[in-house]
Design a protein that fits this description.
about 150 residues, 6-phosphogluconate dehydrogenase C-terminal fold, two-stranded parallel sheet, mainly alpha
């Protein structure tokens, strides 16, 4: 599977990057099969990849450490989807995580807070709170699915 076919490429030019260089890079990455070329400041890139790439890697890696991992007969499509990136290259991803640690730690803290709302709803037995949380998540997913985001 070609993970980059049709994928977006984000370029983070410095203020002095010549337009000719940007044109050359755009043409190169389009020829490589990327679906679109976008630009943004490096700080925005780092904040966004903490959420869109690094956080899912941490989640998958932590998730597979659960006690139920021994019961392989229960593994289905959802488990495979959730854990695809769990077997990461530890050395490479450690460097990536530490290089962007401020953004990644912030995303992890925000996720823990969001997850705690689900824990509270479950412990309270609140169908209303749980329905609200699930609806909110569904609405967020539908919004990104219809605006050109991840499917």
């Amino acid at each position: 599977e070609d993970l980059f076919a049709g994928a977006p490429m984000i370029l983070t030019p410095s203020p002095g990057t010549p337009e000719a260089v940007m044109t050359m890079l755009t043409e190169f990455f389009l020829a490589c099969g990327f679906g679109g070329i976008h630009t943004c400041p490096a700080e925005e890139h780092d904040r966004m990849v903490a959420f869109t790439s690094q956080l899912p890697h941490v989640i998958a890696n932590a998730y597979v450490k659960g006690a139920s991992i021994a019961r392989r007969e229960f593994f289905g499509g959802t488990f495979r989807d959730m854990t695809r990136v769990a077997g990461l290259n530890e050395e490479m991803w450690s460097e990536i995580f530490l290089e962007n640690r401020r953004n990644l730690a912030g995303e992890l803290k925000a996720l823990v807070l969001r997850l705690s709302r689900y824990v509270d709803a479950l412990e309270e037995g609140s169908v209303t709170a749980l329905l609200d949380l699930l609806r909110e998540g569904g609405e967020c997913k539908r919004k990104v699915s219809t605006t050109g985001g991840a499917k």
